[in-house]
Amino acid sequence: MRPMVETVNVAANTSFKVETYSNSHSCGSAGWHIHPEYELVFVRNGSGSLRIGTEKRSYANGALVFLGGNIPHADFGNKDREDNLEVVVQFKKEFLEEKIKVFPELTKIKKLVEKSKQVLLFGEEVHHRLGNDFLQFRKLDEQGSLVKLLYLLDELSKNVPYETLFDSFTRSTYKRDEIKRLEDTFEYVNERYDQNISVSEIANRIGLTPNSFCRFFKRMTQKTFIGFVNEFRVEKAVELFREENTSISEVMYRSGFNDPSYFARQFKKYQGQTPSEYLKGKYS
């Protein structure tokens, strides 16, 4: 089955994304999917399966996995226990391949990043030892999260036991030009979500006609482009609502909407409640 291309919505003031999923709050991309970002996944406990590329591997008491970008996979979590948590850290390739390389002190981390393209499965001792560090992401701000991420990558780059899932992973079955077009589309929306989004402009940017682009986007993501943009803007609106003293009208305009009723409908569609209900719950 062809994997769905997932967009990873990294906030403007960060270079990576951290999400924590509980037994009742599962990852939204549980199906077969692919994205260009690197991914570090910690599953606290329970048993499940790691479905990555052509391989399937079972785990019995949680898991710790590091995989490079553009490797198709399914969600790694499980619902075995009520106290289970899955922490997913996703890094833009620029963060690992461009920014880190300017520091000569991070040679071991660079090597770890390169090995992640083979998919690294870390042993039980490492999983247990670093468990509390992954759980601390929930309480950290952006700067603290960055320091914690670098600490974890440093620990994993040391002489710790791990298994590689692949001798080498071939991406020949996934067309590079299609992945590149999706990356360019996601970047375009990330840069312009608060402005007018033009289908004609993005289609021309990636070398397609508007109709061909819409068909291409739906085939690759199983979403319409307009639906994707609205969902992206709603996610940005949620980020803005988390800031102090933000009004509904301010958030509406800053996230790219300009009609209050349309904003309310789209917000409820993707968040299950209206903006006013969201704010009421926030301050109650």
From TrEMBL:
Keywords carried by this UniProt record: DNA-binding, Transcription, Transcription regulation
Superkingdom of the organism of origin: Bacteria
Pfam families assigned: HTH_18 (PF12833)
Signal peptide: none
Cited InterPro entries: Homeodomain-like_sf, HTH_AraC, RmlC-like_jellyroll, RmlC_Cupin_sf, Tscrpt_reg_AraC-type_HTH
All copies of domain HTH araC/xylS-type, residue ranges: 183-281
Gene3D superfamilies: Homeodomain-like, Jelly Rolls
Alphabetical list of PROSITE patterns matching this protein: HTH_ARAC_FAMILY_2
Coiled-coil ranges per UniProt: none
Molecular function GO labels: DNA-binding transcription factor activity; sequence-specific DNA binding
Name of the protein in its database record: AraC family transcriptional regulator
Source organism (scientific name): Flagellimonas allohymeniacidonis
Organism phylogeny: Bacteria, Pseudomonadati, Bacteroidota, Flavobacteriia, Flavobacteriales
